[in-house]
């Protein structure tokens, strides 16, 4: 007894060796829950950075951006391009807030019949820009880029969480990398709201998968303050909640209050903003009128998409918002969608992912908007990465390194330069 006690006391008095101190330090600085995300975030960040560098090189080589209006794709430096077009509107809202006057009619005969207004851009992202600027002292441009970059890493982590749950850690890591090189990925590190939305949407879907209904409802609510296309996410959360409530077994396992909360909380953000716009502008349908007559964006059941596909098939451009190179890439993406959806469905993903994907795709293809931006509009549909990531996970890392290296370089053109310089993002 005494000897054992003495040995124990002696062992506890011996100072830790270098390996033990290093192990404890790692535990203090890197929680176990964070470690799985290091590889996907590193792959995402490096891949994205390579694409951005290639984009900058292409802009400087073309030497066209300095000749353009700073609001419409130009600027004094290449990085200024990242805050043009929609980015300009977001910075205006962040700086000045909204001015929701009644719709101002334009002279008849033109493409647009009402004057464009900043209320078409939802408040979450410009609000984050303004908040970060006030806290950090950064300018609005720097704050916008910072918000987008940080949100993009949160989004990559969310994509990893969802895909790794369904197809394994390796597939989840690859999915995060694929999102960095997806068509339209150029807006992930620009003054655009996509990164914030995908960060919310991916973690919202993950919460539904894990039956964390309160968190899912809150995230869907917040998503409704970011983009109108949040309707697809809100509908998916609501459908998953309804199905859970309809099954006796799931009601017993998960209860009733959580799904009910998620179902009713999810749409409140979107409905609140749309209603506020309508009341402020004196017309409850003002937001939809503004989108249709101020931006020529509206749901037409796919008529515009079919028009673009028909024209492109015969080498013509007799349609609205025609941009040859972005449109050709958009056509190729649309033709790939049935295959990607079929592969995703073969993996039998949870209902929330299926509903979110199908609703998002129908919204994109069924709406008249800039067809060349199809890749950007589909960027939030991250469940489409499930099957390609699972297939690529069978490759060894040397092969994957070649794949991602090539894709990262190419993405500087097709995912960045094409949409910002050869079209209108």
UniProtKB/TrEMBL annotation:
The chain crosses the membrane at residues 37-59, 138-163, 229-246, 258-279, 319-344, 351-371, 400-420. Residues 1-22 are annotated as: Disordered. It is a multi-pass membrane protein. Keywords: Endoplasmic reticulum, Glycosyltransferase, GPI-anchor biosynthesis, Membrane, Transferase, Transmembrane, Transmembrane helix. GO terms for cellular component: membrane. Its main location: endoplasmic reticulum. InterPro entries: PIG-V/Gpi18. It is found in: Endoplasmic reticulum membrane. The keyword Transferase applies. One of its GO terms (molecular function) is GPI mannosyltransferase activity. GO terms for biological process: GPI anchor biosynthetic process. Pathway: Glycolipid biosynthesis; glycosylphosphatidylinositol-anchor biosynthesis. The keyword Transmembrane applies. This is Glycosyltransferase family 39 protein.
